[in-house]
Amino acid sequence: MLPSTVVNANKKDVQSCLVWLLECGRHMKWCGVFLILPIFAGHGSTATMNQGTPQQSFQQTYQEAQKAMGKGEYGEAIRHYQRLLEINRSSPELYFQLGLANYQKGDYEEASAALRQAVKLKSDFMVAKAFMGLSDSVMGRLESSIPLLEEVYRSNDADLGRELKRLVGIRLGKDYSDRGRTVDAETMYLALIDQYPNDTDVLYQSFWLHMTRARETMNTLLKQAPDSYRTHEMLGHLLIQKENYPAAVQQFRLALKSNPGGVGLHYELGKALLLASAPIQEIRQTFQEEVRLHPFHAASHYQLAELAFSEQDLESALRLYGDALRFQPNLADAKIGLCKISLAKDQLGIAETQCAEAIRLDPGNPSAHYVLARVYKKQNRQREAQEQLDLFQRLKRDSDEKAAQLRNVQVIPSEQRSTPSLPEKTVP
What we know:
The protein has helices spanning 11-26, 36-40, 54-71, 74-87, 92-105, 108-121, 126-138, 142-154, 162-178, 182-195, 200-224, 229-241, 245-258, 265-275, 280-293, 298-310, 314-327, 332-344, 348-361, 366-378, 382-408. The chain is mainly alpha-helical. It has three domains: 11-180, Tetratricopeptide repeat domain (Serine Threonine Protein Phosphatase 5, Tetratricopeptide repeat); 225-329, Serine Threonine Protein Phosphatase 5, Tetratricopeptide repeat, CATH 1.25.40.10; 339-414, Tetratricopeptide repeat domain (Serine Threonine Protein Phosphatase 5, Tetratricopeptide repeat), CATH 1.25.40. Helix 4 (74-87) packs antiparallel against helix 5 (92-105) and helix 16 runs parallel beside helix 18.
């Protein structure tokens, strides 16, 4: 499970939300000088603060509180808001500002109390409900935080900014996970990814949830069915990631022993044998067995085509690449294979078209750009050839770096249940 300790948004989120809150004042939502008269109304000349008229003193104190908030001097802001509330205890806006200052300071108990009072005075105060839900969530009060955050996330209240709704969604997903409502957490993060596809916090939380589930599922599979072909298949994939190819070969063989006709098992064994530098004939026979059992297996046709091409058997390679594309028309690697054959036969126009089609299907495939660079070079289009070669080198370098990062990732022990907290600070 994800931890129920402090959650949090990064510093960029903090700044953007503070700007948003200050903008509220300029648009007469719940702060700023236009609300001071209603907040102060009913207290007349009996209130005395500092010097000048009561209204001037009230406004000055409010402005000082806002200035302190902008500077991050939350203790000072709290003192100003408390003084203002001594004059007017019927203002939900002042309770909200006091709650927000305590939230920023990290005093979530005080924040929740002030925000709860704001909501008591103004039942539809959605922004106050949002921060009350966030405060309760940080303190692990899921029985109150989840309903509040759900209400806010579903709300179309105009005062709820996009940034606040995003953070409410992230926290709600985490609360679902902490409560064991994994399906709800997954649904929440899928919705957030749809809205914020490049958001690092959203992607991180979704990743951690799925990694946690994967680890728990792996442990369950190992415990409940240690001899299942699926267990051996899973271990084979994990061993390939760790570059222990001989051990991976052994696991795929055990999987096949349990399920000789399993779709894709001979293919996975063949790939492991390739990585383990097994004899070519053994590798070919393995892929051929997959095709015999499952003629529709396009990836096995492709691997057989690659073996034929490496042996300069262009006719067999052409036929096998064609078979792969017959079962999987959008297989970019097979298109690249056809391009290589056309290049070898000096059919440069056809090769260029085939490479362009491969790039359309998979723009990030380094091999497609490399082969196209060779085509351009044979056509004496040196500038275009160099551009494609530069692009190939960049994509290859990026691919190698990502692969190295993944290889260095260590499997988290099953007994480790705590995880990194949500982003650095608890303010949207």
